[in-house]
Amino acid sequence: MPIRLLALDIDGTLLTSRGELTARNQTALQAAKQQGVQVVLLTGRRFNSARELVLQLALDIPLVSHNGALTKNIETLETLDFHPLAADITREIIRIGRACGVDMICCDDPHGMGTMVIEGVSEQNKALHRYLEKYRHSLVEVPDLLEYVQCDPIQMMFSGRCDPMDEFAVELGRAMDGQIQLFKTRYRSVDLTLLDALSLTASKGESLAKLAREHGVTPDEVMAVGDNYNDLTMLRFAGLGVVMGNAEEDMKQMEFAVTGSNENSGVADAIEKYILAAS
What we know:
- The chain is an alpha/beta fold.
- Helix content is about 35%, strand content about 20%.
- It has helices at about 25-35, 45-55, 85-100, 125-135, 145-150, 160-175, 205-215, 230-235, 250, 265-275, and strands at about 5-10, 40, 65, 70, 80, 105-110, 115-120, 140, 155-160, 180-185, 190-200, 220-225, 240-245, 255-260.
- The strands form 3 sheets. A 6-stranded mixed β-sheet has the order 8-7-6-9-11-10, with helices on both faces.
- A hairpin with a 4-residue loop joins strand 10 (about 180-185) and strand 11.
């Protein structure tokens, strides 16, 4: 069955490690669109940090951000789908994060451009400091996150070295069992893991399923391409799930097809093989 909807992750998938969109990927996307394939980006990024890329690609389908917690129209900023994290649950997550000594960000302002609210970051977390400096215009620092969280935010986010984050994920998952979902994005090559705590109803897979229904597309007509563990729900929804060559080995051993790496335009390879050659 021909592919009618192409779902793409951004970092580690569509973009290189330097955050660049290769000419091959851009050409392949345009060719797919010319064949009537609709393209949607589903990312763990915040809305504001992914919006520019969607504008650049002139995509018609709204942007799915925060691992499925927030879908917005990139031009009007209209909130189309929102799965907030309950304030009382958020406060409990903050207490656990404090007890474990991890760096945490509360992502808020779902109906605007988005804010990152922090109460401080450890000096040794250089990667997080660089990220916060890059998006300083979205940063709000407060003396007490527990006092700040009075309304339901988008999500809680954590970052740190891979092994400590794995340990924290186990601790948080055990403490909040059945109340939240945890999505992990691991970059072992640079010893960095991002951990997102979201509502039970939020995921890339659920958002992709909703978009497919709205556009009259069956799962068999969907191709999803991703590189990390937070992509698994959308890869499993799609009739054709494709894993990037730069993904961790255990993901490449799953039931999905495997394409080239993000450095070598693996998205273009997949589009050419499964969409353009099949037409």
